[in-house]
Design a protein that fits this description.
Domain SHSP: 35-147
Protein name: Heat shock protein Hsp20
Radius of gyration: 26 Å
Keywords: Stress response
CATH architecture of the domain at 39-90 and 98-136: Sandwich
Pfam families: HSP20
Order of helices and strands: HEEEEEEEE
Family: Belongs to the small heat shock protein (HSP20) family.
Strand content: 25-35%
């Protein structure tokens, strides 16, 4: 019987290679791809001007009734769901690259935002949330009298 030096990392390395193969198969499926469902994040643009902060989120195919916008503890949260159309059966798809299911994005807000006057509109699949800035209080000038 031959003496073989035991290498505890050999089994670990083999398991890691198997996991990598499984993940590659799951992420790179082309034939018979499953519909991509689950939590996804819509891309956003955020910009600021002198009067407000504006957040624009791409939400094509999301019903406006499915969009929930909340502000809690200086955090703006966008939630919703893009539902998959049942008109076409899953087995009839050749490729699915869009995501379906629920989404959620959260953004920390500066203390300068007037949370009472936030407005949201949706046009051509783009949600625009306008966060107006509060009127800044100007420092009060105190004159010193000379006696």
């Amino acid at each position: 019987m031959a003496i073989v030096k035991y290498n505890p990392f050999r089994d670990l390395r083999a398991m890691q290679e198997q996991m990598n193969r499984l993940l590659d198969m799951a992420w790179n499926r082309e034939i018979g791809e499953e519909l991509k469902e689950g939590i996804w994040q819509p891309p956003v643009d955020i910009y600021e001007d002198e009067n407000s902060v504006v957040i624009k989120a791409e939400l094509p195919g999301v019903d406006q009734k499915e969009i929930d916008i909340r502000i809690e503890d200086n955090t703006l949260t966008l939630r919703g769901e893009r539902k998959h159309s049942q008109e076409v059966k899953k087995e009839n798809y050749h490729r699915v690259e869009r995501f379906y299911g629920t989404f959620q994005r959260s953004f920390s807000l500066p203390h300068t935002i007037d949370q009472e006057h936030v407005k949201a509109t949706c046009d051509q699949g783009v949600l625009t949330v306008t966060l107006p800035k509060r009127e800044e209080k100007k420092p009060k000038q105190i004159n010193v009298e000379v006696k």
